[in-house]
Write a structure and sequence with these properties.
Its cofactor is a divalent metal cation; Zn(2+); Fe(2+); Mn(2+). Helix content is about 35%, strand content about 20%. By secondary structure, it is of the alpha/beta class. The structure holds D-xylitol-5-phosphate and zinc ion (ZN).
Length: about 220
């Protein structure tokens, strides 16, 4: 499974989002973090900005919704043209209904788990989603350090996906960099979000390529 690199524009310049999307034109998708001051203690951007980002992005947009009540708010992000819409398991009332709705609207559906949320309740529902996002930091802010305690969860999720012969991606988000990407890949992740590691690099395209090559050597 080839490694996919999704830089997070949370570490971009919010006054120059279009320019900074073009800086990652060689990435596989742009990861856009939507935060609402309720589900997480931070606020980023909402639907009107998201819609414009989809329009101007040179790569598909991967929406990560860190918001309360995604059952109500997430479908509009699929309607906006996101390639994938990921909502948090902890916030959703009816995750299967929501995932089905996102797929019906043409987006890939992702379910995100905070570091302390177990994956086991979702293992029998894997066929309903296209991606599991294992948060490798507590959601809310960029630049935090990778939590190694999430690696066993990634391994268990990957084993269940293989056992059921499904094509479900495992995304990791938070603290992903040259020093952590290999162990995330080795554990079974195949989609790698990196904010500060990519946008903080002197040469952004080169950093994307380096991270992709490192992950590729360790993905299964
Ligand atoms: C954090 C966001 C991440 C964030 C990652 O809650 O979901 O996408 O941008 O930033 P880094 O890669 O700097 O940890
Ligand atoms: Zn994110």
């Amino acid at each position: 499974m080839p490694a996919l690199i999704h830089p997070s524009i949370l570490s971009a310049d919010f006054a120059n989002l279009e320019r900074d999307l073009h800086a990652i034109a060689t990435a596989d998708a742009a990861h856009v973090d939507v935060m609402d001051y309720h589900f997480v203690p931070n606020l980023t951007l909402g639907l009107p900005v998201f819609e414009r980002l989809v329009e101007v992005s040179p790569v598909p947009v991967d929406g990560h919704l860190m918001i309360a009540d995604p059952d109500r708010w997430a479908p509009a992000y699929a309607e906006a043209g996101a390639a994938s819409v990921t909502f948090h398991a902890e916030a959703a009332q009816a995750p299967v209904r929501l995932a089905r709705e996102l797929r019906r609207l043409g987006a890939r559906a992702g379910v995100a788990l905070r570091p302390a949320t177990p994956v086991e309740p979702y293992l029998d529902l894997l066929a309903e989603v296209d991606m599991i996002l294992v948060m490798t930091v507590e959601p809310g802010f960029g630049g935090q350090s990778f939590i190694d305690g999430t690696l066993p969860k990634i391994r268990r999720a990957r084993a269940a996906i293989s056992e059921q012969d499904l094509d479900v991606h495992i995304q990791v988000d938070g603290g992903v960099s040259r020093s952590t990407i290999e162990r995330a890949a080795e554990a079974g992740a195949n989609v790698f979000v990196a904010g500060s590691a990519v946008y903080g690099a002197d040469d952004v395209p080169a950093e994307i390529e380096t991270l992709r090559a490192m992950a590729d050597q360790h993905t299964h």
